[in-house]
Amino acid sequence: MPAFSASAPGKVILFGEHAVVYGRPAIAVPVTQVRAKAIVIAEPKSPPGMLRILAPDIHLETTLAELPESHPLAVVIQKATLALGIDHFPACSLQVTSTIPIAAGMGSGAAVSVAVLRALSASIGHLLSDVQVSDLVYEAEKIYHGIPSGIDNTVITYSRPVYFIKGKTMELLPVKKPFNLIIGDTGIKSPTAIAVGDVHRSWEANNRQYDQLFDAVGASAISARKAIRSGNISTLGPLMDENHRLLQQMGVSSPELDKLVEAARAGGALGAKLSGAGRGGSMIALVEPETSNAVTTALLNAGAAGTILTRIEHS
Ligand code: PMV
């Protein structure tokens, strides 16, 4: 029985979350240690068009026909049929698994969508291009995020560090010198749409102040792009600290995130900040190989629900 599988990495935002929604530049990187995976197996004995969905991580076992139309998996499959110009996929089962923490700012929803689109399109011998995959995932992401900037679908589709300006620039960022990040999960689920909505209301109420914060964040992302391209990694730490301070002023940090950020710095990190929508979810710390154990221990002692060490390099 032929099987088609595809996987996609998690991601973290290195610089520029929230400000990216308002047109400022941001940088995101893939986290390849955690992945979403989709496997499509043809089931020629099932009725035509019957698509069984098995997603044990979220205790979902159903058929496409039974899934609510607004379910993110239903949306992404529906978008795939339209893009591929078919009425339905040949009868099959679609198994979805993921090791990416959910609602932790690591792009689990986008990664599942990328993997599903690639596995399903491969199963009918019509691979979608990266641009098509990224665009379709963006459509599905609207369900998780409201009006997403598009950085998550982009970095996860290309599985490469990206420098991104909404609607304008998507640069696959060359990494001159690899660097290491530790991701610390607060264990607090934080729906992106809520933090994004709160920032929007604050921006409406204090236009000038928030635009200044976004400009300052954008300036950090521009400096970080230069540092990554030239291999000047030591300058990234202070830029991350500065970006965290600006996110605190935007009101999207939390006592738990601040505690992890401070613990990472005290443990020897070169810099640290929250990553993603904030309020909960994850933070990231820039570490040298010699300090990675100490920073991991410091994060766990400060209450991190989990940590991931990842190396960012040009792939
Ligand atoms: O998906 P998250 O939690 O990493 O957050 C996305 C980053 C935001 O800038 C807050 C929203 C967006 O669409 O870019």
Summarize the topology:
Layout: E1 3-15, E2 26-42, E3 51-55, E4 60-63, H1 72-84, E5 92-98, H2 108-123, H3 130-145, H4 151-158, E6 162-165, E7 169-172, E8 179-185, H5 192-205, H6 207-230, H7 236-250, H8 255-266, E9 271-275, E10 282-287, H9 292-301, E11 306-312
Parallel strand pairs: 3-5
Antiparallel strand pairs: 1-2, 2-5, 2-6, 3-4, 6-7, 8-10, 8-11, 9-10
This protein binds (3R)-3-hydroxy-3-methyl-5-(phosphonooxy)pentanoic acid.
Task: Describe the structure in your own words.
The chain has 315 residues and is of the alpha+beta class. It has two domains: 4-164, Ribosomal Protein S5, domain 2; 175-312, Alpha-Beta Plaits (2-Layer Sandwich). It contains nine helices and eleven strands. Strands 1, 2, 3, 4, 5, 6 and 7 form a seven-stranded mixed β-sheet that branches. α5 (192-205) crosses α6 (207-230), α6 packs antiparallel against α7 and α8 packs antiparallel against α9 (292-301). The model has no long low-confidence stretch (mean pLDDT 95). (3R)-3-hydroxy-3-methyl-5-(phosphonooxy)pentanoic acid binds at residues 13, 17-18, 20-21, 105, 107, 145, 148-149, 151-152, 192, 196, 276-277, 281.
Instruction: Please give the number of β-strands.
Output: 11
**In percent, how much strand structure appears in the residues?**
25-35%
CATH architecture of the largest domain: 2-Layer Sandwich
Mean of all residue-level pLDDT scores: 95
Q: What is the helix/strand order?
A: EEEEHEHHHEEEHHHHEEHE
Small molecules in complex: (3R)-3-hydroxy-3-methyl-5-(phosphonooxy)pentanoic acid
CATH topology of the largest domain: Ribosomal Protein S5, domain 2
Radius of gyration: 20 Å
Name of the level-1 CATH class of the largest domain: Alpha Beta
- Taken together, the total number of domains comes to 2
Choose one word for the global shape.
Answer: globular
Number of helices: 9
End-to-end CA span: 33 Å
The helix-and-strand class reads: alpha+beta
